[in-house]
Amino acid sequence: MPLGLLALAIGAFGIGLTEFVIMGLLPDLAADFGVSEAAAGWFISGYALAVAVGAVGLTAAATRLPRKPVLMGLLGLFIAGNAVSALAPTYEAMMAGRILAALCHGAFFGIGAVVAADLVAPSKRAGAIAIMFTGLTAANVLGVPFGTFLGQQFGWRSTFWAISAIGVLALIGIAALVPSSRSDARTDDTAPSLRRELGAFRSGQVWLSLTVTVLGFGGMFGAFTYIAYTLTEVSGFAATDVPWLLVLFGAGLVVGNWIGGRLADRSIDGTLLGFIGALVVVLALFAWLAASPMAVIVLLVLMGGFGFGTVPALQSRVMHYADQAPTLASGANIAAFNIGNALGAFAGGIAISAGLGYTSPIWVGAIITAAALLVMVVAWATARATAPSPDRADAAARPTTATGSLATSAR
Fold first, then answer.
1. What distance lies between CA 197 and its chain's CA centroid?
2. Are 146 and 162 spatial neighbours (Cβ–Cβ below 8 Å)?
3. Which pLDDT belongs to residue 407?
């Protein structure tokens, strides 16, 4: 494994920690800044919106710049945002720090995925992307519980100082271990440019891939957003049981990400069809069997596994169909993940507000995920009818040295 992938994973770990650890610290933040729980919740919502903006905006702005220095600059922005959060004297300053850190999130994962794919042979690129995203899943399993504990013991500001230190470590790692991209040195008409990157969005398969991302991840996140209520009010678990149950969910994320990456290197579309279909079944069973604690434990792990197992394949697919200009499309896919998060949480909240109970967000998630499966079937069928699939194209590309996409031979 190229050591540069480890550096990228450390950066992903820090960014994932910034996104998710805030959930365990919200009561302390609300008390310190003298705001309501709803107002403190905007530290989460504002972050997600800023991720979507940064994923497209900053990635577009950096299309002509060398990728390694861009990644280092994004980590500098990340470190600064978390330092502002750690020092924030007011609610507004804290929000500014959250937004500043969030702006780098989408662009880092979007550009980082392209860099990760460039570090390995074409036949191993989905696996390389999965290794980078392992940092994000590890943030859920290890980082969030530790960050919450640190904040409870030494104050919430200590958590953000620790995250800043992780950012510094990732910055040093990328500077030392990630080689300059071979595509950075190109000066011909295939060199990255905003016009070429925007041209990728003429592909209907890119739009279908982005739609699958929004719906597929939105379905899982819609179910997960309100999972604490389901576990305590329906499944009968105590509130003190929720953290370790979430660790089980996080373990599912890690395993699913690893398996999904391995399988996507063999068949991107096959992996997506299988995992999304399985996720529909898991969510439906979860909603149906939510009153059974033993079933819930198993299904919680499976929900994380099949849900996050789609990520390497989704990222790989959009990069494939973006062909020689994958960077902006990759960033757009990261934005699509966050749009899906917002969509799922919103739809699940509507179901609860309508009085449909605490299993209703899971049913809503199953319906949204079923829609993702339908779109994926359409994408797979049209790809087979009109162009080589990403799997066949990757096989054809393996003897080549193309660096800008997952394949070089087909759109």
1. 21
2. no
3. 35
Q: Say which residue the tokens 């470190």 belong to.
A: 79
pLDDT in tens, 267-290: 889 999 999 999 999 999 999 999
Query: Tokens at residue 105, please?
Result: 């999130």
Q: Is 238 helix (H, G, I), strand (E, B) or coil?
A: coil
Task: Give, in order, the Cα–Cα distances in Å from 122 to each of 5, 119, 181, 244, 406.
Answer: 15, 9, 15, 38, 6
Name the residue among 367, 410, 386, 408 with its Cα closest to residue 121.
Answer: 408
* Residue 403: per-residue pLDDT: 32
Q: How far apart are CA 320 and CA 405, in angstroms?
A: 6
3-state DSSP assignment of residue 407 = coil
Q: What does the block give as tokens for 350?
A: 């509507």
DSSP label at residue 404: S
Residue type for position 21:
V
Cβ–Cβ < 8 Å for 390, 408? no
Q: Do 161 and 35 form a contact (C-beta atoms < 8 A)?
A: no
- pLDDT per 10-residue tile (average), the chain, 411 residues: 85 87 75 78 76 76 79 92 94 92 84 81 77 79 75 88 94 88 50 58 80 89 78 84 79 86 87 94 94 93 90 83 69 78 79 85 93 94 73 48 33 32
**Residue 323 CA: distances (Å) to CA of 178, 274, 307, 406:** 23, 24, 26, 7
Angle formed by the axes of helices 125-138 and 91-118, nearest 10°:
150
128 touches 319 (CB < 8 A)? no
Assess contact for 139 and 17: CB atoms under 8 A.
yes
Residue 99's nearest CA partner among 161, 29, 35, 51 is 51
Report pLDDT for 188: 47
- Segment (H or E) for 48: helix 37-61
- The per-residue pLDDT for 406 is 34
pLDDT value at position 43? 80
Q: Which of 305, 204, 205 is nearest to 259 (CA)?
A: 305
Q: How many residues does the chain have?
A: 411
Contact 304, 285 (CB under 8 A): no
